[in-house]
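Bumping with the actual sequence this time:
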Amino acid sequence: MVRSSIVLICLALAGCQGLPSQGPHADTINKDAGRSAAEVGRRNAAVFDIVDVDSRSATLVSNYVTTALNRRFGIGGGVGRVVIGVGDHLKVTIFEAGSDGLFSTTESKQTNLDIVVQPDGMAAIPYAGSVQFEGKTLEEARKAILASLANKAVEPDVIVTSVSTASRNVTVSGEVGKPSQVPLSLVSEQITEVLAKAGGSQAQPYEAYVTLVRGKKTGTALLKSIIENPSEDIYVQPGDRIFVSKDPRTFTILGTANLNARINFGANDLNLLEAVALGRGGNDLATDAKGYFLFRYEEPDVVMSLLGSQRFHELLNKGLAPDSVGRYPIVYRFDMSHPDSLIVGQTFPVKNRDVIYISRHPAVDLRMFLGIVGQPVGIAAQSAGVYNNIND
């Protein structure tokens, strides 16, 4: 009777798809890496690849995290050639040598004109007609007015000064003291200077994200990174849009960690080892030391550098797809059975919304299987003993 019960239990377990678990084995993650949905055998499965984290890859990722804006936009140089634009308010002062000229009287030899550059880039000057201002420097505009007044005014001279520069505004919004359109001056201005004009960030630098939109390009960086890395404090250009958002940074830790949770950074920086420690480490009785993984949507430049151009395009052909902001799924693998992982892990930065997964050791499934089998076998044996006693 006991033998029959054991056979029935084993057959039942053999027909099951698998044992209860908290997630995939390391072998399953490794096997699915770099495979298309068809190869995985699951429709619409996400395509990803695995990168083993060593000193080179950790340094590459760390360097990119601190230079995101500079890589996308470049820090640039000075303001270069500052020109007049549509909507700019100018003051034009015209002088004449004579007292009976077009712009002079016996009381005054000058006339002041307030003009605003129109959408066609022109503005009207009395007796000179429409003058092109857009795209010209103040000096070039002065010369253009003088040329238009030649043979009309008496030995004219002109001064053009800028009152306001609507064409050189930068829009600053979000978590700042004074959301507004900030006019750029004639000298070079960087992100932190423009933010200061808008009242500064209302969030702590380690939880304030600065997004800069320029044309069709968008870049986001932590304000803390901009402050600490001068190359990230790039020069702002007219028409740029800056948005500051407060987003307390968090990561999620799953698997055989002693604490499965979404956890706040609670600090300016966080590396992999610190993040694992916040999750109270891996369970000694269940963790696979070779199965520490960090799941992330990574910047395309980083993915290209880590995988190489050929591998990257192979994955694109297999269905590798970006998220809504153009980042690609990548899985970083850490082998904690090697001592140097404790060094490399200190230099690998955890980013906002990262998912750390600690896989279970294969022996855990065996132990779980034996536990499941042992319980009904014991019950079956007990029942068999009772049955024999009754028959006796």
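The tokens above came from a reply further down the thread. The chain has 13 helices and 16 strands.
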